Amino acid sequence: MSLTTDDVNQIAYLARLGIDHQDTSSYTQNLSDMLELVAQMQAVNTENIEPMAHPLDNIQRLRPDIITETNQRDAFQTIAPQVEDKLYLVPKVID
Amino acid sequence: MHTKTLTEISRGLQAGDYSSQELTESYLKRIKQHTALNSFITVTEDLAIAQAKQADAMLAAGNAPVLTGVPIAHKDIFCTQGIKTSCGSKMLDNFIAPYNATVIEKFNQAGAISLGKLNMDEFAMGSSNETSFYGTVYNPWAENTVAGGSSGGSAAAVAARLISGATGTDTGGSIRQPAALCGITGLKPTYGRVSRFGMIAYASSLDQGGTMTQTAADSALMLQTMAGFDTKDSTSAEQDVPDYSANLNNSLQGLKIGLPKEFFDDSLNAEMATAIETAINEYKKMGAEIIEVSMPNLKLAIPAYYVIAPAECSANLSRMDGVRFGHRCDNPEDLNDLYIRSRGEGFGTEVKRRILVGTYALSAGYYDAYYIKAQKIRRLISNDFTEALKTVDVIMGPVTPTPAFGIGEKTKDPIEMYLADIYTIAVNLAGLPAMSVPAGFIDNKPIGLQIIGNYFDEAKLLNVAHQYQQVTDWHQQTPQGFE
Description:
The structure holds 2 protein chains of 2 kinds. Chain A is mostly helical. Chain A is built from 3 helices and 2 strands.
């Protein structure tokens, strides 16, 4: 399966991932090559095969509903790019 | 002192032959002498000396755990509180981890000394360490040759005897492949055996932390400290941890070794085939029985992996958004611009490729055709292993198609790089434990023998590897210039 540069730009937007304009064609080539590689799977009959999401087929473990985390806001916000009044700052979203 | 194995160092410390501080200073000096390998991203000299002094006090007081005072280092994927944890990426170049990974906590409690953080492919995505933001790692065995990846710094540093052992992580071969290319012993435990808490996630259903050491006996000591159930990791296995050193000396008489015919078909390089055959012959001499097994779906491992791993990575790496930690672009115009540019500037090319493929595979209309299909193939591959391991104790084969390749040789064609992981990837899809053991040289470059075992049978793998290391000396060889 072959992708176009428009496809790649759309995927990059979905992933909120900036890619340099001059690199778009090489990403398009790489992605098309990867899709060609994984296309081998389509030839295999997998009818009635249960998808394997987890190597040990474990069920998600439950735990008592009690708080185990302590408040570490100060530690976490020390490494944040921009904070004010204990809030993470981002560009204005609503006018 | 650097020529000693981790086991010998531990004995020497316990016997009081030397202090941890002496040892630590000697290794730090060696690390400074060999910065050209680029194996470290961060050297934590002051912390190491402080830890060594504490370790010496523990040793003097008696009853110190076996790793007390032993200098090791960690792949820069494990969060270390107060210390930069970059994951080989510009995105996390400014990231000082606010907490310790469980693995780090365990080594700290065991009194081990951390000399620093080791270089790696960016977010563990790569097979040559060439995707690291901090530059490639050089293989100490040959000039201008890759150390392998993604745990390339760990492998090169152990091979060059800059540390006595290292942690690594393995998602598609990232412990075994660099271990093979650098001539050291690598162990990827069963999925869930070692806690993933604080180990920066690449593909969560495949990632597993493990050991990179000179010998299997060393690996047993490190795994003993690392392994165990952790409530902080929701996929951690609730299984008892056996004594990994207890069975190292068991006889291999009657051991059943399975050789998958798909590993040994015409595509296997002749020199590699001969080297692996020679290793298998050593096992025959020790009384092992060789049985041919078949794993018909093995060739589908790479396609399945290159859907599952990118899909999981695209989800995991969405947390890198320039808001709470990590790289943020200058003067974002709006929220979208903040996300797009921060991520665009922070991630390297290979990481971007995988995020893009993963995003595509998970997008509406393609999910069943790619992601579910890959998970079904994963089941088929896992079934192949289960079937084979009903008749044999371990499976053996090569780790890599060739010895270490040249720097830059495979960077132009990512697919060529991916295809070289043919022997290691299936193990991760199944979640099985596997080792790479030094098994000779091709063109003066080391190669590895892969030993794959059943779930939670690490003790058996270590026994099988240790016995081989009693009759061969490949693991004792040191690269020229690093003796």
